[in-house]
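2 proteins. here.
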Amino acid sequence: MALENWEKEAKEHQKAYKYMLEKSNKTKSLQNKLLDALPDLHEEAFSKINCLECARCCKNHSPRFKQPDIKRIAKSLRMKEGELVSQYLKLDEEGDYVTKTTPCPFLAEDNTCNIYEDRPSDCARYPYTDEDVLLKRVQLTLKNAMVCPATHAVLEQLLLIGSSRP
């Protein structure tokens, strides 16, 4: 998988990705075909992409910190939940807790996560390349394709599958 120009290609293919994703949400047979392919495409992408070399997600996005995440992380850091929220989090326009700063305050210099074992569920699931979220949340997927080379790689393969005949 050529990743040298993935950012340029992801930008150039945004319309094609959007068309395919929207079409899959209107065509059950296409959706099933793409969903069936996701686990293998996810594994293939992550066999070639090392998140610790990239960490663009942690440098550019904030996950949502849901109450169970806040509780778990605060306990892990031996802080009160209110302290964790006031020190690291803010409410976004949708009413979700997100990090006050980017990159993520829990991202270490070597791109590891200081709270990896207790990280928010959004982090554990990102970039959703093995979930139906990839197909159903079109705008999120298009945004992720510009940040995450694995999302781009999976979408490129889905384009091939989606354009092939049954």
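next one coming up
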Amino acid sequence: MSELTIEQIGSRSSKWGEGPIFWQDHLYYVDIEGHALIRLDTQSGVEKIWDMDERIGTVVPCQSGDLLCAGDSGIYRFNPLDGSKISLADPEAEKRPDNRFNDGKCDPGGRFWAGTISTVKKTGDASLYRLDQSGSLKRMIPGVTNSNGICWDLEKKLMYYIDTPTQKVTVYDYDLASGKIENSRIAVDFTKFGVEGSPDGMTMDSEGMLWVAMCHGGAVLQVNPDTGELLRKVLLPCVETTACTFGGNRLDRLFVTTGIHKTLEEAGAGHVFVVDGLQAQGTPAQPYHG
């Protein structure tokens, strides 16, 4: 196995970097507390930054060329050319004012899944939602506290999901045609590994293994969702490792977003790091089809 290299990429130090996705030769990600959307050229390191005027939890591309975002004001379509926004849904604005949208991703059918987080850490007060291609929104998983990583298996029959305080990855049977999920069970229990941190953002490689960023743990873990086994631990230079995704021409580079710890002073905190030499490949990002 080749030696790993871990390097900082780009110049931005985000307050809380999150939600990386590789699309059309660029890495898109968000700075939640910095209210920013960032597009990073992974070859040159050049960044384009949009001020979103609110906390933004996630971003995904649309087939139309726009971007789909979710944050304080709900789910909205964003035009990166003129900066305009079109609101699509904000299901918790009135009844749960302390909640905001957090992580999200598109399923193999082009539906957008995004979940909320209770910013006051009220247990079970958040949910996971699905925005269909038609624009209709449906609550899929209630009773969530901190909705985070989500991805689908290579056969498009399973959905993996993280509600961070549970310290687990839950797996559901997934129907591609309808977007329906059922039969939840535990795929990975992180309390068994004796590692620090909590599971946050997540991606899948071309062998069907999960890569999970451990918030407060300074690491990304590769785990086998079929056996629940810990396969590999990749240590990062700062403790707040928030999310990860594969990118590059061959999807063989692991990009990791980070945040700034409340009290620790760490060199590189808030920057994006790229891990090379893993001898693993990711799977292409899926855009929203609406």
